[in-house]
Amino acid sequence: MANSILHQDAATSTTQSGPAERIRRLVWKLAIATLLLMAVGSATRVMNAGLACPDWPLCYGELVPAAQMNFQVFLEWFHRLDAAAIGFGAIGLAGLSWWDRRVLPAWLPWASTFALALIIFQGVLGGLTVTELLRFDIVTAHLGCALLFFTTLLAIGVSLMPYRAIGTVGKLPWVGLSAAILVYLQSILGGLVGSQWALHQCLGAGQLCLVMNSHIAGVVPASLATLALVFIAWRTPALHPTLRQLANWAGGLLVWQIALGVATFRLHLQVEPLTVAHQATGAALLGVLVAFTALALRDRAEIFEFYERRSEAS
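The chain above was modelled as a monomer; its predicted structure follows.
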């Protein structure tokens, strides 16, 4: 508790100053928009709307294809609109970070630049998904890059939020990191299943069953790692309430994700909202695990810095 009090002023001055607070609010808005973007992208795929706009970056050569507008065209058009808004937001994030770099953490401009690079690459992949007619490897890379951008935003946002280190995290940062990596890889496998329609192929013609079975088998290590995080968090005395809450969210999302996955498999992907919810919940689970890991690493780093300063002073 003494360590927590000693870190209060440093945490407050770092995360509640004007430029940092503006950037933090922008980051959270971009993160929410990115989660929505991935959900709309999932809906676009399951509704066979990925090529509803045959050209890129315009749609039927127009910014708003009013004459051709139907539900499928709207999904693809709105997906691009949200992506463009996030792109401009990422430019603003990088610009603000470099403009106010003297009063911000030294890592922030570089992290914002990395996020901007990811969204530029994401835009290139988005164009290629159309021009290459939804080639499965490009579609999967498109999802992987979106998840990386999403988790980068969450890591930035968590690192800027007000927080008082307690120093009781132990090995939880590494457990959280392991769970996040496994869930990310599982999400990529899920992207391969979706982009190749592997479930339909496996059930119908017996093809692509390796991809489908790999995704099913991948549930085990990702689930065990997440459950280990939840269990250790429950058993850790005096764990910071925010970390405990994030661990509880991870456990709840994991249970919900497995239930959605079983239902999606049994219904053979015939209920589109169920499939979209399954993929959106997976992204949310990954986001919670990344937020937990970033916050736990921050807790460890701040406590280490405190003891280092105290040893230098003595």
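The chain has a mean pLDDT of 89.
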